[in-house]
Amino acid sequence: MRVRISSFLACIVVACSLQAQRYHVSPIQAATTEGTSDNTFPWASSSMRRYQQIHSDMPSTTMRITTLGFRQNATTSTYTGTRTIDMELSMGRGVVYDRVQLTFDKNYVAGSKAMVIARKKINISGGATVDPGPCPFDGKLEIKLDVPYTYLPSDSLVWDVIIYSNIVLGNFGALDADACPTTLVSATSFGTGCTATGQVYAMSFVASGSDNGGTLGLLFSLSNGPVSAPVLMILGTQQLDLPVTGFCTNLYTDLLLVLPMGATDATGRWFEALVAPNPGAGSLSAQAITIDVGQAGFPLAATNRRTVTIPAPNTTKVLRVTRLTNTDNVPTATKAMFFSTSSVGYGLVTRFTY
């Protein structure tokens, strides 16, 4: 009788445990369907990197998250390889996916970043594949947290991994990702930038970007600027060509909005993204200005103008997820690159077990 009672109680414990395990898949559009993209970042890439994903489509309930799960991209191939990843993982409450910045830590709600896996080596292996997808979450592509993370439903959720090495043995395929529709912006250039102190060529200003499921993501970059100089970006709706006494070039747009945007690096380069809900089809003119104490007249240097033609928002599929990563093989990077068509409204299909 004791054996029967013990077996009965064990069955109850197992059943309760299984019943208590719940899941949430994000992006939610890919919960039961194959994502429209695939990617090797960060788990199936041999590069050292920092990778961050922001999820703004989480459920309106508190979650005690214990595991992150991923799945293979749909294919007829068989992947039996393994990866040994030297990594650490943090999680926290985050900004909304359409308000992200390229500096990783600025996407956390202040004070919410928490280490959930201290640096160590973990192993994952090739998951099951089916075609057509979606492939199953079969446990082989799971990252178990050392410290469970409690998600509160008032904010977005951020997971953020630093990868120091990622060694593959055997064949290992890309993972499933989902993407929103994108429409590229077009940009034209006008005018000539100043020649900054210490540089040979004129300052150059470039703009690119796209509508991403109703979110506008614009990347601006500057080269040949003064070294380690604060950058201001002027945004306007008018295309000017206005000489200013004491200024080393003309003012090329109206001062509708002036934004402090960090500083140039040790070579005079700078880049930053602006991410916001798409206000609708139209145009935006931008010019960058830096402090340059070596200039005659005003201690400022300015660039050419870039006028961006913004497409109408396409909201046929709104994916409330954004991913950011660096591409320079530096695991401790503080700032991400920006991909016009695969940063905002894009992400690895992720299953949260809670």
Number of helical segments with 4 or more residues = 1
β-strand percent reads: over 45%
Order of helices and strands: HEEEEEEEEEEEEEEEEEEEEEEE
What is the rounded distance between the termini?
36 Å
Number of structural domains: 2
What general form does the structure show? elongated
- Give the tally of β-strands: 23
Query: Nearest-angstrom radius of gyration?
Result: 24 Å
Q: What's the pLDDT, averaged over the residues?
A: 94
Strand order of the largest sheet: 6-5-8-3-21
Query: Unreliable runs, pLDDT <50, ≥5 residues?
Result: 8-18
Give me the secondary-structure category.
mainly beta
What percent of residues adopt helix (DSSP H or I)?
under 10%
> How many strands, which pairing sense, and closed or not: the largest β-sheet?
5 strands, antiparallel
Explain what this protein looks like in three dimensions.
The chain has 354 residues and is mainly β. The chain folds into 2 domains: 23-180 and 317-353; 182-310, Immunoglobulin-like, CATH 2.60.40. It is 5% helix and 46% strand. The chain is built from 1 helix and 23 strands. Strands 6-5-8-3-21 form a 5-stranded antiparallel beta sheet, with no helix packed on it. Strands 11-20-19-14-17 form a 5-stranded antiparallel beta sheet, with no helix packed on it. The chain has a 4-stranded antiparallel beta sheet with strand order 1-23-4-7, with no helix packed on it. A hairpin with a 2-residue loop joins strand 12 (204-212) and strand 13 (215-223). The longest helix has 19 residues, at 2-20. It starts with a helix and ends with a strand. Mean pLDDT is 94; it is low at 8-18.
